[in-house]
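As promised in the previous annual report, we have extended the structural survey to additional targets. Below is the entry for Flagellin.
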Amino acid sequence: MNVTSFGDMAQYLFLRNRSVDLTKQLDTLTQEMSTGIASDLPTKLGGDLGFVADLERSISKLDSYQVAAQESALFASTAQGYMERINNNALDLGSDILALTSTANATTAEELAQQSVSFLKETINNLNGQLSGRSLFAGTDTSTVPLESADTMMAALVTEVGTLTDVDDIAQAVQDWFDDPSGFDAIMYNGSTNSMSSVRIGASEEVNFSLRADDEAFKQAMKSFALGGLASGDYLSHLSTVEAADLVARAGEELMTTQSELTDIQSNIGFIEARIEETQTRNSAALTSLGTTLNDLILADPAETASRIEEVQFQLEALYTVTVRSSQLNLLNYM
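The corresponding structure token record, generated without further manual editing, is:
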């Protein structure tokens, strides 16, 4: 019978290497238990990590779409709020003017004219609205406040119509100033003439916020308010009571047209908001599905990992016991 023996140093090295190996296994399994991710993915997936990489890229892309969708939703809701205030002012003032025109007197005409100026200022403030430091209605130049003040507009219009008394002539001169590139565009508008680019919020979904403060619907709103404001004695003091009342009445008619156009813009923004919400729902569902698939591939089985930890711990404890007993062996104890 052959007997194979090991020297003390060989035995020491064997026990030491075995201890290091078991300790590493325990550390790996402990990390696997704490993170939930399999420690040896290549082995778990048969050496093919391509599918996992594709899933991770898809999840990352969907995450970026969700961020863009959230920002777009906030942009749309903020713009909708500004539009609502402008539209409500146009509707309220237009309705008041049409209701009071038949009984208008000098006091009524002046009050409506002053209200027109006040709403013009509010309209310009709304069109100068910002979100997170970016102008919403300045086109691509989001760092610029798109419109000059209402006082600047009214001063320019007084220069154009200062000697006129006929309502048709005043209304036409105001229209010409808004249409003339050297009028409104040069004096009032500071933003870019390029609208913001579309924003991708899904694999096949984009939204486009092309609203600018120099859009025709907004110019129509400002023109209507300004036309009513010119009836005030602060601007065209030479107008008679009848002429001032007629000018306010013309502004009221235009405001009702303006209100209809603003409602169309609000409807378009509402449609964009609905698309964003639908896309967010689809993105969220896709993220959940992809996340579940990825987890099935890379997550470790907690029960199996716990069982392996117990097994390694048992082996490690047994090794420590053997090591201690081996260290106590000597010739004196044997004798």
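The mean pLDDT is 82. The longest strand covers residues 199-202. These points will be discussed at the next consortium meeting with the crystallography subgroup.
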